């Protein structure tokens, strides 16, 4: 039933967050929320969708939790708190849940999986498929993560002051990794990353990096229908059909950036993406601005991959020779990251040495293994 599916997406995080806060039992919270949705599937087609679906689900989930707690003979305080729950959880509960799922004591992949299951309500089977493991394996991983939270007494709260500043980048990193997994081939994860970024933005409206991350996701995701051809092969950015780009998503992202200060790496990445997304044709791309944004990004986040992208930007803005000069700073990842060779090949071709560029494209293809990236690199070599 569509109404139940919508309610699941909109209210799952609220239901689970409130029940965890009151009961302190993650499994009980998820089971009761799931029972409430199952009851809705039975009753709503017969009785109609209630005016307040979230409140209805919370009441059913609360009553189910009360029954379980009474049978377990828990202390009166928890029973009294459960009995007082009438409406969907306040925003703070969902924020607590996000920060708890993303606690640095957990491994990064465990944080991603737990966030998907507990905050977003994605099924364990779907998460397992995204991580290329069996459902049983993912169930064990989620169980271990919840057990670690309990055993380590990880607090169910939003950090404050300096602690918030320290923890927020970790939360954003989880969403970033989640989006990248989706961007590389699992659309469900990209969609969930965008939805969670929107949620985090409503809960933390004054955090510029939260807004910038949402803008970055929207800009990257706007090209999803143009990134591959009918054979499934990757299409370079300068050859994509820009009529297939999602202009509404681009416009929303640009509006977000217009009212958001540049205060961190996601803000810088979003502005680079905006330069690409707002260019009507490849020739309109403002490479000089992109190069300047990458200069700043390399200063605040000096990683080899950013250094590689900076070399590309400078190569297009100021000439292939300048790009090849900056590429020397990425030699330490050349053996493990075939894209370095591909970038060298592209810049070499633009510098006019087509024979060497062709050899480099083939070398990059061999290092990339099987798949669409290899085919794209070989196609570039064939063009030369």
From TrEMBL:
Cross-referenced Gene3D superfamilies: 1.10.1740.10
Q: Which residues form the RNA polymerase sigma factor 70 region 4 type domain?
A: 98-149
What are the protein's UniProt keywords?
Answer: Sigma factor, Transcription, Transcription regulation
Q: Does the keyword Transcription regulation apply?
A: yes
Q: Which residue range or ranges hold the RNA polymerase sigma-70 region domain?
A: 10-72
Pfam families the UniProt entry points to: DUF6596, Sigma70_r2, Sigma70_r4_2
On whether Transcription regulation is a keyword of this UniProt record, the answer is yes
Q: Which domain of life is it from?
A: Bacteria
Q: Which family does it belong to?
A: Belongs to the sigma-70 factor family. ECF subfamily.
Cross-referenced PANTHER family: BLL6612 PROTEIN, BLL6612 PROTEIN-RELATED
Q: What is this protein called?
A: RNA polymerase subunit sigma-24
Which species is this UniProt entry from?
A: Paractinoplanes hotanensis
Q: What is the lineage of its organism?
A: Bacteria, Bacillati, Actinomycetota, Actinomycetes, Micromonosporales
